Records
---
Amino acid sequence: MTAELVRGQNHALPGTRLEIRVSAGKPIVAGATLSDEKRTVRGTSWVAHPGAPTLPGLEVSQQAAADHRLAVDLKALPDGVHQVNVLLALPVGVGGPVTFGAVAAPFVAVTGLDGTEIASYTITDLSAESAVVALELYRRKDAWKVRAVGQGYAGGLTDLLTDQGLPRAQELATAINDAVARGLARSVATPPPRPADEARVRAAAQGHTAPGQPPSPPEPAAEPAATPVVPAQQPGDGGAPVPQHPGDAVPPQPGDGGPVNYTHPRRQAAAPPPPAPTARPAAPGQHPTPVAGDATGWSLEERLYNQVWGMFEDLARTAAAYRSAVDFADSRMEQELDKVLSDPRSRIGDTGDAARAAARTRHGDLVDQARAALDRDLAQLAAEAEVVEPALPVAFADWSSPVWQGYRAPMEVPMALRLGGLHLPERPELRIPMLVRLPLERGLWIDSGRSGTDSLADADQLRRLALDSAVTHAARLLASYPPGAFTVHVIDAAGTGTSAFAPLVTAGVLDEPPATGAAGVTALLTRLTQRVDLVQMAVRGGVADALPQDLDTGEQLLVVNDFPHGFDDRAVTRLRYLADEGPAVGVHLMMVADREEAAEYGPLLDPLWRALLRLTPVPEDHLADPWVGHAWTYEPPAVPPGSQVLGHVLDRVGAARRTGSR
């Protein structure tokens, strides 16, 4: 499970042999310093840089490059080393950018030797700095941790090394830059932008300025986050304000020499992928033909996942640019009209009418210019969605996709799961798949209440729709895991969901019938809380092999229908415990509930609702991304009317569980 860090956050390292991957939009210099327990660098022999790339337990790149891989063996470091500082700097005197504010935000990831990502950090909010301490790996007692630092220095390497206590820092900085200059001829070139992104850049640059560098989205989300990201903030939970964009000017990016790049830095922040298909070149004046899987990643699944998130980010950004341009046009027209009204000489008569007409004409021109740029971006995104959607694997695909007809139980867990679709009012038919990483990091709450929805359905219809939605989510989760690796439990205290749960029961994908009555609720909650306790104690004590042989250590999902009916105070306490502690050890909640019906518990249940990702059984604009703060409309993953795909998939899952095969 990857930890997406923000500045100052730390994360435990599970091993001592690591790789640190750095991605940036331009060639940069990567290095590292070693510090003792007093955070002191004892001399130049404790600095790894392109002129001296190897130290005991540490190796860095010998050249400036857009992508780096640093090898670290924490056990092999010299005696007395308690900290490793990862440094990034822009090369001096080579004609490139001179500040990090002119390049895409650098992305740093700590991985195991097998490539499994442990922690990542996008270094945002850099402007005039030309050197930065990206990460620090530090020892706490007998364990090592990683911390996101992001400390920049406008004075470059000299100021950075001086701040770390190195004597003659200027001489060492000069030596590093000389070494980079000697190796620059063979440095790795900046990765070329995607043709589709180039088209978006050209379209977006005609009438809008670029948004400010967005913060890394928190998890969820996301999401995503990203982490991020899933975009999953409730209204009022906070989010990045939409930046203001003048609609009649396109200032160049500092140090760029060209139009603004609208691509979010995280869209090309992964390590270099294996060769992927590329879009066919377009004729002059036309958009290139998009291709599914042309994002970065090591596998087609990862490339498609990154491409979907890139589409989400591009749609968020182009909509933010359009809305800000319209706001600017409105504000400008109001100012011009106020100026006309404040002058008695132009308040009435032909002069005033002409001034007001001119203001409205300029307003219309700005809005038309912004709308044209938006339409070009949306058309390209729609074309990309048309080729991406049919190429999505089972876990990412909509229920209407033909890929479900050939479903077979997977051999391994996919990297993400589709929970529905997202769209914005600028183009409602353009749906972006809502993907969340697996295993789930938070539970799900299918809201069966009427709060916040404009649906004409009555309360009983909403409850039934919510329960049907929960069943489809549970079926998709079961279908995404290998046979026996995911278990679903159901609490239906009053028995009101018998018909809705029938597909799960009939297909044999449940290990036991839904728990009913107070006794059934208590027994199931007791068993799951005991499992959480046992696994937590085993993990903390380092004796995971001592768990009982009959304990199911696979992922668990508890579906709770019609909460809080059938729950007493003790059962509610256990449910809260599962929501808080369960996800870390593979026990997840899916609540089908109306929050208003649980109002009698007062603020006692507030932490429960906050711990869950709220989804709705009907379309509703309740999800807010923390990047630009849009209110996204969530579209639940409905099975097409008359389709038998849900029963077909559940039958396959049940058969695979019984035989233990695909």
---
Amino acid sequence: MARALVDHLAQARDRFVSTAARPLAFIILALGILAVATGWIFASPPGASPDDDYHLVSTWCPRPIESTGCGTTTIDGDLYVMAPVTTSHAPCEAFKPDRSHACIKEYSDDTMFPSNRYNDGQYPYGFYQFHHLFVGHNVEHSVWIMRAINVGIAIALIGAVCALSTREVRRATALAALIAWTPIGLYFIASNNPSSWAITGVFAYGAALYGALNAQGWRRWTLLGVAGLASLLCYGSRGDAAFYVFVASLGILILAARRRHLPEIGVASLLSVIGIWCMLSSGQSGHIAQSDASVTLHERIEVAIMNIRYLPEYFAGFIGLYSGPGWRDTPLPGYTTILGLLVLGAVLFYGARTVSLRKALAAFMVFGAMAGIPLLIATPPTFPNLGGYHSRYALPLLGTWLLIWLSSAFKKSSLTRGQIVMFVFFLSVVDAVAMHTTIARFVRGLLSIRHLGWIAPGNLNGDIQWWWADMPLSPMALWGLASLGYALALASAIYLLRNRQVEASASTTPTEEEETA
């Protein structure tokens, strides 16, 4: 009798702890995500992503220019738009890692400057027109508002997919996004670059479509709606992102579509056709289609072989190798790439626990596009080699590929506590070091150390030459809170996902509500 009473009290205690822990974990997860988002939004100044002079001017003066209130002028027969000098000259420290962003203090938001670096058809209609709605007199204030909105879009779409999907899809989506976006994806999502929408849109589309194929009832149709919204980001950001809708559709349908999924197949086919049309009608495709008779077939073959040999380094650019923050002029410490690749390799082997013919074909198709499209484009005269074609252009497909590769792997999950601790630690270090280096690059500049290269000063508050106006947090405080938030959010997410998995394993007759909870 006494033993039964003790067991009953122990079970009641465990139920109470579990019941109290889950809401607390959700709160920590939400606060952690908010901290990480804030960190990356303010880690770099206006003009910090590649070609931001072009993107900011295009945001202040989108097509049609005559309806935006921007003045124009003609110089040597070329049309220039009049935008604040702090947009066209925002990247005043570009390609000079030892310089901070303090050079922007030489310019004023009240000064208009002629620029011929603006979108006159190279990029689709959508991204610049949407962000123009948030243009104000203060360029710095407008920039962080736009970045916050981009981050909010990403959180909303991925959150919707996770909330509406089954446990297996939720776990695969969360893990794929985490691996694919740390750290370079997070940097670009929280930027004013169209790659923000491309990275978010392609992955959210693939995840929502995969979720719809595994859902029932109203959740199925709602996820299809989320996929449609995500595709709009792809159409309105970049021509290649619009084409990636077709690539993601093909990969996900090969993986999970059955005869009963005719609505999903129809929607995906329609959205894919629209994406291909958007790609073909964009100025980017016209640029790629150019030819140059001076480039011989032999030279093209030589470049192709060189590019194939460079592919591993190109993929390492997803984690920052030769493709760090800024205008690729902020080199990250080598160990961040090493740790990131270790995690990616571990996930590669983890996903190989279950490999079906469908999964192999789907993964091969998406990987072929992720490697083949850059190889096709990075030939003269479009780009002289693969080194000139940024890794971020192919990054949107990485999340979809990981989502496919991780499908069904969780059914045989047996990770130890030590493996989980290493996973959290490695990713947290990658994120923290990448953010610290980025903040240091623009706040005070990097230090050039002989035989070591560019190194970020340890104390971000030591010599603040530039910082956001009216920002209540110092650079060091922002970095510390964001880095701690990343680690706590990651640990909380793993706790919630594993706790639900353990509960599901212990249950012999799970209900339909538990399957989608």
---
Amino acid sequence: MSLRNIAIIAHVDHGKTTLVDTLLAQSGVFRANEATVERAMDSNDQERERGITILAKATSVLWHGEAGETRINIIDTPGHADFGGEVERILGMVDGCLLLVDAEEGVMPQTKFVLGKALKLGLKPILVLNKIDRPHADPDRVLNETFDLFASIGATDDQLDFPHVYASGKQGWAKLDMADASDSLAPLYDLIVRHVPEPKAVARVDEPGQVLAVLIESDPFLGRLLTGRVEAGKLTPGMAIKALNRDGVEIERGRITKILAFRGLKRQPIDVAEAGDIVAVAGLSKATVADTLCDISLSEALPAQPIDPPTISMTVTVNDSPLAGKDGSKVQSRVIRDRLLKEAESNVAIKVAETAEKDAFEVSGRGELQLGVLIENMRREGFEVSISRPRVVYRTDEESGERLEPIEEVVIDVDDEFSGVVIEKLSARKADLKDMRPSGTGKTRITLESPSRSLIGYQGEFLTDTRGSGVLNRVFSHYEPHRGAIDGRAKGVLVSNSDGETASYALWNLEERGVMFVGAGEKTYQGMIIGENARADDLDVNPMKAKQLTNVRASGKDEAIRLTPPRRLTLEQAIAYIDEDELVEVTPKAIRLRKQVLNPSFRKKKVRAD
């Protein structure tokens, strides 16, 4: 039986996971009476809630086509730029890839990012023009756009000669020509078998066994599971192996306790893993991503793909608010440190460093969403933490000594009437307009180059400016000299000046001051942010003040109070909203905003000192 290893890469929401669903269903993975689920590969709770893929995952199908029986290992990758580290790692495991492009939206920033990585590794992609059943689909325009993209990022003549296929992942059909009739994905399967080469590792089946670990996860029964492609030889359970780091230094020795192969949506134990196959190996306790698992006789490590460095960082500290420890069970700095280090071990795009401050850790990643997903996972596990405003990671030019900052390519689709306000706002944030063109049906596509720091906290403002109809996509582009100061948040905040429970009467009187973040009967403390001030300065207020009850002022009059519903911020919105002197307090049951210095007298003193 022949073997093919492919990855599915695309911009976010272009249909990767849905296409994998249909590939699985049409290959006979599910029994006739077995219930199938949508987006079967998105098994993580947050992936299902957010509707995006966060972690790269492997599956495999058996295809009986024109070339006989073939096993195709498929890796579904995230489309969001924040999770690009997952894509970079797994591309080294495959010999070909399907590049999905939405036949209506066309080429987007992440398409360029993932395609650039694939071409650099010498992969020859198959272009899948997906969603051609959409009413405004224009596959010919998108095909030309994609060809131009291949040429602009340095594809070789061989790579430029890429095959393309028209498909609808949702409806489950593909065809090589628009005039063809098709009711299945068989043309795509056969094209994969024809175009993607068999793994080169197959020729090294008689050499000693070697695997490069690319993905890591923890299993309650088997312990640490390391997934990778067998680069040479064979692996069998019970075989003695050792782990080498990138420099060839031995980390540990052990025996393989189990080898799991991907068969449909399940992982099955197998007795022998041969060169070229993608498998998960259990038995080692220290080896991690980018390490080589190999036969005892070998001493050279396999080359591992370098990962792009993080561009954004934030400080995660122990929760020291007056309400700390009420919701969560994991509040100690030692427990938080262990959890962050465990995350950095499995996710190579995240870096964790200890700071000079006690109980504080610097966590760096690719973007606000990636860091938000990490903190959301921690709060669901029972952690309580305080987090600072995200900051960009600067570099210094080695020759000139200039400070360099990360620049992102931003592509925005908005209704024509909102394009002016979007350009005005981003130009004020030091963004450069690169291109602006109509994209059909009353919409405009704007392409800009913007400093990463100017996009922190902009998403909420952008949705307000475009009445929720705009779509903003961004991807890291390059570093360039610092573009100067950018104005911060335009409005101040309302800060509670005492501890207690909020009163309806007090909040009713405060509503004219600004927008409330809390409702009546909620616990607050001195220094906690309870709302947004209508003016630019911060204001200390008393949200606990009750109505004075006398013979004239009867308590029954309070029933007439009608409060405006408070604005509840999600975790990402809260992280983006806070200023330099503020923190987000995250617990399993609540997200609160607070000042770093709770006491108003000390806060003013600190401002004067600065």
